[in-house]
């Protein structure tokens, strides 16, 4: 499903303003007879595209030149395998060999992110390199390399879909505390836009239920029950403190919570992430 398209538009005014004309050179702003300069369009070298876990999502990357031609111009791209960290299972590129048609300034390629209940890493990226455009120059100031990051987004937030049985996919201090129970039940409430993780974070530490308050528009976790015990045994009572960046992805049943202790071990940020069982 094509749920969102990002188009990285014309870059060349910015590039051309930084390029000087030689004394006898034809003015480079002449789109018919001027100097043909190529690059990725958009003006930024680190754009971002959407990864929707629930649906394939298409994003468009544009390559262009600063002059017109009466014939097609071949374009060659490549993926920098050494710098690309996104697993190929998460994306497909329509082509790495295309043309800028005669009489046109640009051509597009499509990057499709593939729906998956597995999620890419927060810093994963696809690195594209513009290797050549027939009959055009790629200058030092041209953007000939794109490091394309991902924004993981569900199409909507459905808090009612979150209750159920979950596996603990990551818990920072689980091994430290000798945790052996890696399943949790999540129930609705007690209040509006809230869910409760039964037995909370660290069962062996006597943790209490963890109540999450969720922004129904963004899925961000905006509150926890700060009177709830996070750890009661090893270091005395410590309570839940919410840190920024937590979220729910209701379309794939993922809960990611960033926490700190509030008590004798304050200053130990940790993650507690859950994945809904099939």
Report on this model:
With 278 residues, the chain is mainly β. The chain is built from one helix and 19 strands. It has one helix spanning 12-16, and strands spanning 38-40, 48-51, 57-65, 73-79, 91-93, 97-100, 106-113, 125-133, 145-152, 164-171, 183-188, 194-197, 210-214, 221-224, 229-231, 238-242, 247-249, 254-262, 270-276. Strand 11 (183-188) and strand 12 (194-197) form a beta hairpin. The relative contact order is 0.14.
Task: Summarize, please.
By secondary structure, the protein is an all-beta fold. It has one helix at 12-16; strands spanning 38-40, 48-51, 57-65, 73-79, 91-93, 97-100, 106-113, 125-133, 145-152, 164-171, 183-188, 194-197, 210-214, 221-224, 229-231, 238-242, 247-249, 254-262, 270-276.
| Alpha-carbon distance between the two ends | 23 Å
**Which residue ranges are poorly predicted, with pLDDT under 50 across at least 5 consecutive positions?**
2-28
Count the helices. How many?
A: 1
- The string of secondary-structure elements, in order, is HEEEEEEEEEEEEEEEEEEE
Tell how many strands the DSSP assignment holds. 19
Main β-sheet: number of strands, strand sense, barrel status?
A: 10 strands, antiparallel
Global outline: elongated
Indicate the radius of gyration in whole angstroms. Answer: 25 Å
Question: Average pLDDT across residues?
Answer: 88
Give the oligomeric state. single chain
Beta-strand portion reads: 35-45%
Percentage of residues in helical conformation: under 10%
User: Which structural category fits the helices and strands?
Assistant: mainly beta
């Amino acid at each position: 499903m094509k749920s969102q398209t990002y188009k990285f538009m014309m870059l060349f005014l910015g590039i051309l303003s930084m390029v000087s004309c030689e004394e006898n050179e034809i003015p480079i702003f002449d789109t018919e007879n001027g100097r043909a300069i190529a690059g990725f369009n958009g003006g930024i070298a680190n754009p971002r595209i959407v990864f929707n876990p629930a649906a394939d999502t298409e994003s468009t990357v544009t390559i262009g030149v600063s002059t017109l031609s009466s014939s097609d111009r071949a374009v060659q791209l490549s993926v920098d395998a050494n710098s690309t960290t996104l697993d190929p299972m998460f994306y497909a590129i329509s082509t790495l060999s295309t043309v800028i048609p005669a009489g046109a300034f640009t051509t597009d390629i499509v990057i499709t992110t593939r729906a998956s209940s597995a999620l890419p890493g927060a810093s994963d990226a696809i690195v594209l390199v513009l290797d050549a455009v027939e009959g055009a120059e790629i200058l030092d100031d041209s953007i000939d390399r794109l490091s394309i990051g991902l924004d993981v987004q569900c199409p909507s937030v459905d808090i009612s879909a979150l209750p159920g049985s979950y596996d603990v996919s990551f818990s920072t201090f689980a091994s430290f505390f000798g945790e052996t129970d890696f399943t949790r039940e999540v129930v609705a409430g007690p209040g509006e836009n809230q869910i409760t993780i039964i037995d909370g974070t660290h069962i062996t530490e006597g943790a209490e239920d963890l109540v999450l308050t969720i922004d129904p528009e963004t899925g961000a976790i905006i509150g926890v029950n700060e009177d709830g015990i996070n750890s009661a045994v090893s270091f005395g009572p410590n309570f839940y403190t919410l840190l920024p960046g937590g979220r729910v992805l209701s379309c794939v049943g993922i809960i990611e919570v960033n926490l700190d202790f509030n008590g004798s071990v304050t200053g130990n940020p940790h993650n507690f992430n859950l994945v809904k069982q099939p």
